């Protein structure tokens, strides 16, 4: 049996990294008063059509859409923002407070060509700051993205930022860009030719060298931005500079989704080959209104967890999980006594593994080693008869006899030797 193309099992040996990410970001978001939200992984297809925009890669070719048995058109969510905007409206979250700070982590689905760092089911960690038009909100979320990457000891990344202006300014620019590119149509690559008709701004993003050359004298988006848009952009840049967060302005940065206005940004690294973007985000002031909610300026980003994991793989925080106590009980009486031992270990808040094999003692010890256990608690006939247990430390093979009534004191006295990370 094979898993579906572009999907991956996350195996127990990898799961500690996932849990670490969840644990660390949860702590961080608590600090900044961002609250976790979990929305369904499928929604009405229409939600994504109305939010992401009809001439985008996601809508044109990447959606997992189907009809359910009730003939509803449904799509597995390709990204988080549309669902959160929907949830914000459905649950009338604006009534609760003016600014809602939210975060999420979960699977997203896009029908793409699978390659390193690109899957069909992948995971995004994202935040949305809903209800503020202040450039401080844009700065706050970029600062948090930067903090997260630093929490995982990442370097070698750069923050690229641009302003897309408001929707009218962008529409005007779109026409001018189209006018400029039309005479070059035959020189464009196939993708750009298609985009020229439906979504010419996306051509700015092209990696094709000839297209890049043509674009070098194309009209610039900034020249179409009026003072309100420019002021917002300058303020964000000013605050980032004040915070000493390095950034570069990339005038060609346009995002693959239609709902952005004003700020758009990406965080890129040179360590992931073609899949160089780890984080993408921006401001979406009209989205919630467009979906039928109140006018609610908002800004957010999403980080691809698989790409983040590829970057943090060799970083020091990624310690593998250690097992503390391996319990070996031989014989019917010993097996009952094992439950009493477990009770004491639980009280000490230490992790343990009860041996369930039919192996010989030597082979059982082999299993304990395999699981990276620190110490084996062994109970057999002799131990039961004299009410003690044998503790065998695997790293140095030292062995001790512990009278059963002193077991708790013994564990507590040795806690410093046991892995604190697991015991947290
Ligand atoms: P790309 O240009 O790589 O296709 P995108 O612009 O489609 O990215 P966004 O929609 O901005 O990506 O999603 C935010 C982040 O989610 C990306 O920067 C990336 O880290 C991650 N991501 C997007 N698509 C995938 C995928 N198919 N597999 C793994 N991660 C992905
Ligand atoms: Mg994409």
From TrEMBL:
CDD domains tied to this protein: HisRS-like_core
Compartments in which it is found: Cytoplasm; Plastid, Chloroplast
Keyword tags: Aminoacyl-tRNA synthetase, ATP-binding, Chloroplast, Cytoplasm, Ligase, Nucleotide-binding, Plastid, Protein biosynthesis
Gene Ontology CC annotations of this record: chloroplast
Database matches in SUPFAM superfamilies: Class II aaRS ABD-related, Class II aaRS and biotin synthetases
Sites where the protein binds L-histidine: 79-81, 110, 124, 128, 255, 259-260
Subcellular location, principal: cytoplasm
GO terms (BP aspect): histidyl-tRNA aminoacylation
Highest taxon of source: Eukaryota
Domain Aminoacyl-transfer RNA synthetases class-II family profile: 1-312
Family (UniProt): Belongs to the class-II aminoacyl-tRNA synthetase family.
Subunit relationships: Homodimer.
PANTHER family (alphabetical): HISTIDINE--TRNA LIGASE, MITOCHONDRIAL-RELATED, HISTIDYL-TRNA SYNTHETASE
Descriptive protein name: Histidine--tRNA ligase, chloroplastic
